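In this supplementary section we document a worked example of the pipeline. Step one takes a protein sequence of length 168 as its only input; no multiple sequence alignment statistics are reported here. Step two produces a three-dimensional model, which step three serialises into structure tokens for compact storage. The input and output of this example are shown verbatim.
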Amino acid sequence: MVAALLVRPLATQDEPSGPLFSISQSRWWIIAIAVSVLFVLSLRALIVKPEEYPDDLRREMEERQGQGKWVLYLVVPAALALLLGTNLLRPEPASAILFLYSAVMAAIPVAILPVRGRMLRSYIAQRQNPDAKVQADRLATAWICAVLIVVVVAAVLALMSTPYGHTR
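The serialised model returned by step three reads:
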């Protein structure tokens, strides 16, 4: 799969006005694949270990985690490969899209890891009190949204500041 991603764009697509940020399209593919691998590895850090649950929830969560591990190791990489593979169908160069993809995929763990503990405490409280009204953790939500918005806006501004794609 990696070889197909790296060979086809080089053979069939020319960059309109030079490389994006002085990085060739083949390098953007390598960056996107590396960021995808780092994303999957960082998801592993987000997995809650059974020891982090209270005793009354531990057994149930151990069973659920055992069932869901295949999602992390099979479904997520397959979905990311499919997402990257769709760029092979595009007739124009995919450097800008790969840049945005890489920026966002790198930002997701950065947004979630700092508030993971708060989200876990909120989840445990909801599991222990199923009759209680479900409330979102506003600080965690604000943090995640703010980080992702800043990254997307910064990436788009960076693309807008380049002459990439403009032919004169």
